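Appendix B. Extra example for self-study. Work through it before the problem class; the solution is given directly after the inputs so you can check yourself.
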Amino acid sequence: MLGSYSEAEYGDFQRRLIILRAGLLLVVALLGLRLWHLQIKEGAYYRDLSENNRTRQVLMEPARGLIYDRHGVLLANNVPSFSLYVALEEVKDREALIQKLSNLLELDPAFIRKKLGGKGGKLVPRKIKDRLTLRDAVLIESHRLDLPGVMIQVESQRNYPGGVTASHLLGYVGEVSAEQLEKPEFSDLHQGSIVGQYGIEKSFDRYVRGKAGYKRVEVDAHGHEKKSVVVEKPQPGNDLYLTIDVRLQKLAEDLLGRESGAIVALDPNNGDVLAMASRPAFDPNVLSRELTPRQWAEIVQDEGRPLNNRASQGQYPPGSTFKVPMAIAALESKTVSPSSTVFCNGGYQFGNRTFRDWKATGHGAVNVHSALVHSCDVYFYTIGQRMGIDLMAQFGKQFGLGQSTGINLPSERSGIMPSTEWKKKVKKEPWLPGETISVAIGQGYVTVTPLQMANLIATVANDGVQYRPRLVWAVMDRSTGNLVELPAVPQGRVNAKPETFRLIKEALADVVKVGTATRAKSSMVTIGGKTGTAQVAALRTGPEESIPKKFRDHAWFVAFAPIESPKIAVAVLVEHMGHGGSAAAPLAKEVIEAYFKLNDESSIGGSEAPTGSSTAPSSQAGAASL
Amino acid sequence: MIERMAEGRGFDTFDLRYVGLILAILGIGVLSIHSATHNQEAGAAPYYLKQLAWIGIGAVAFVILWAWDYHAIARLAYPAYALVLLLLVFVLFEGRTSKGAQRWIALGPFSFQPSEFAKLVLVVVLAHYYSKAPRVGWLQRVIVPGLLVLPGLLLILKQPDLGSGLSFVAVYAAMLLMVGVRSQTAGIVLLFSVMLFPFVWEGIWGALHDYQRQRIMAFVDPNYDPSGKGYHALQSRIAIGSGELMGKGLFGGTQSQLKFLPEGHTDFIFAVYAEEWGFVGVLVLLALFVSLIWMSLDIASKAKDQLGALLAVGIASMLCFCIVVNIGMTAGMFPIVGIPLPLVSYGGSATVMSLASLGLLLNVKRKRLSLFY
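Solution. Structure tokens for the complete assembly:
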């Protein structure tokens, strides 16, 4: 009945079942031990891991402050853009991810590798690329499952609606560099933060930067946000109201056109920068983006040096425009009287060397007035020789030469106002008397920036009272909503009698009326000015046209208007364009005329005060009265 | 002198406890499936409802295999095995592919996995083989049954389904232990090496280089994700470990709710449960499983004949193997092979097969021995 189930086998079977039961208990005990180890002994550790898994601290970038011109025209704002981030802790195979990303986005693998290796803890997501095109963003999103740890975030991106307009002034923004992060002023930033890297964006960064906040988010395994709690709100940056009138700025830039050069327009009464143009220029929208090393090299190696702000960083010999401070120095030091004359026969003999006048036939007997009007070199050789370099330097420095104007822009250059002491210190050589003669007509060692010359002519127009050039007239404080005006900063005074300034201004008026700058004559407004032609190469032969352009002279013109109560001072420099009277003076005239035209239109009720309230957004109009 | 008497009986308290255990484990399964999937996309039928439907079908299979004389069932062993082999061949050519493996046969809206049913059929085949006639000598005790197992095993590995393949080997090994190998020592050695193999596996496995492991895994299981580098295993360990003593509560398991845990409702359901119910819950589930296997071995021990005893042992070993390997794998003790947790993991074929097997087990008990000394 029981078939094969024999007695012996039955007993054996029962014994083996007991072994089986023992085995079962042993194995389950091992499992239980393992689970006890996981859940009890190391439970807290795994709980931490699971918390890290699901929560992530996410920085909330502040909105960078906006930048407006003096009348409230928007110059810089923020627009949404897609950025690509990688959360390192979710990346299992870094090289595979690099390969996939580089294939999808056509990026250099080395570039991605470098980005992934950036500073910061494992929990700080690394930014790989910003300003993704919509196509790339969609491409990444659709491959999300193959790209663990990759996140697309919508971020705000700096935008300059005017493109190249005022690019040197506005500057551009970029990611904070590793070196910058070491410095205390960037201590509140983190890798990937955006800071101003040039121009006003850089020098006013602490105003517009704002303060990052952060939120704690719960994410699922795909990096999707499930819940988020804002722990600290980001504080937006403050808005800036610049002193420039963007219409005047654009005109000045257009006047320079394709030539290299700079135009600076100041308000002599408070130092406001009305326009500051430099050409060639760059597009800050491009530079605010992540550039490849090749793009960057192209910009840096461009022979026109478009990143150079020629207005504040370009140093040129002032040429004959230097005769203005020299004339004041000679009168104030009583080296000459207004009526004393020098006879000009077209040359000045010093030792065995002859210094030539630009007019070979000479100007005849000239006093300080006619010497300025006709830009007689021999007159200034003579008075320069009489004054000596150190007296000249003393007056030059009163006008701010050889030192920075203090404008709030990065890397302003100070030019050179030479003196015996300067030469001993810098060149380790004694001053040679012949060198004084070159400096007297703005050649030799003396160099200036267009901004310094604009400030100089503004000082003359303002009878010796000098202001620090000002770029921002008000800051809109986002936390209080108040518009806080920044005061004009007086920067010293030239020690000269009002009589001297009157004489000089009369002469400068005649320069335009009958002298070297008749092409700056305006039917709208009285203009006073001085031309300059800065020699680039010492030895020149033949007519101007036969000289290669890079050896041709720079054209200068400094001016102010109206002569009776100056409202605008302008310095124009055009590189390699020859005579100031022909190449630079007409540009200054255009700028001045445009300024008065624009001001007649926009100044309702005759107010010239730069409140900007006529076009500023209404929410700030009330605050503007503070 | 032992007197044996066959007794046909109805439901008794043993049966009630047995069915109660099964229902408790099924309940834990349905709850965990619901927790793992409740925030999945709306629209499709919820997984826990589908699982309940499978349990319903499984209950029918349970009753059929419980009521039908198991001797009659055993007589169908070879035809059934032939059918299973045919289905396995069919699935290789016509089967539905999912996650890189071709395991399913589509039947209208459902799909079923022949390899799951192959396990139960194999138990019946081997029990039938050993009990039909006295098997003597190595050839009859080891080699022939081995050859019986081989075609099914190869077809399953070809799919590839490493987990089911290993279950096949485990059932064969358990049968060898109980009747195949006559030497007591050899039996004990065999038992312990089978049982402890997973635990020493980690040591052997750990000694290999990454590329070696990947080559081996790619050979036996192309599903193995070489770029995953233990991501699933780690997330599973985190889920279990972070449950600590009391767990995070139902629906509170962040690892599964936020989908860090892959396959939460199927192969990794134990991690979902352990995360939400903690070590306390784990002990409860382990106790339920041990009781169920223990009672199954009771049935084996009191079986009326060798066929019944072997059927009971085979089914108990198969379930036990799946439970141990599944929990061991989610707890990071063994490499990850796709084996569902019986009665708990979501899955139609596995659920129906488990319930059918347990019905057959209870069938053996229905006609069990009464012992009189």
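Self-check: Residues 189 and 267 of chain B are 30 Å apart (CA to CA). If your reasoning did not lead you there, revisit section 3.
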